Amino acid sequence: MTSPADPGLQAERTSLAWRRTALSVAVGSLVALRVLPPQLGPLGYAVAILGLVWSLDLALTARRRYRDGSRLVRTNDDPDGRAVAAATLARTAVVAGVLAVAALVLVVVIASR
User: Fold this and answer.
1) pLDDT over threshold 70, residue 8
2) Residue 94 needs a FRET pair 20 to 30 A away by CA distance; which of 4, 16, 56, 74 works?
3) Phi, psi values for residue 78, rounded to 5°
4) What is the pLDDT of residue 81?
5) What is the distance between the alpha carbons of residues 113 and 52, in angstroms, rounded to a whole number?
6) Is 35 helix (H, G, I), strand (E, B) or coil?
């Protein structure tokens, strides 16, 4: 019979997944910084910088949540973490919406040429 997995590993895997997401957003934003300004002008810079700020927010939030999750596993506390999750979800939804609108504008600009 095998022993159960370390309960702290779930928080670590989740943190690593969010870090990969933050890295992907950062790389996509750097590519956008190269591609969008010739097409959209200053709006292209704004979208790329917004993406970089978002990736930083994702990385910092992942780090904080991992720290908090590890502490909870060690102390066996059961706090209500919905407020933190709601704020993160709201920021992510707003940024994703802005980036979606920017992508739509890019498509319309390219299609009109």
Assistant:
1) no
2) 16
3) -135, 70
4) 56
5) 29
6) helix
Q: Per residue in 23-50, pLDDT tens?
A: 999 999 999 999 889 888 888 898 899 8
The pLDDT score that the predictor gives to residue 2 is: 60
Task: Determine the Cα–Cα distance for residues 48 and 30; give it in Å rounded to an integer.
Answer: 7
pLDDT in the model for residue 68: 77
Distance of CA 5 to the CA centre of its chain: 28
Q: Going by C-beta distance under 8 Å and a sequence separation of 6 or more, which residues neighbour residue 48?
A: 29, 30, 32, 33, 36, 37
State the Cα–Cα distance between residues 65 and 20, nearest whole angstrom. Answer: 15
| Residue 19 near residue 7, CB atoms below 8 Å | no
DSSP secondary structure code for residue 85 in this structure: H
pLDDT of residue 55: 93
Q: How many residues does the chain have?
A: 113
**3-class secondary structure, 78:** coil
Entry pTM? 0.67
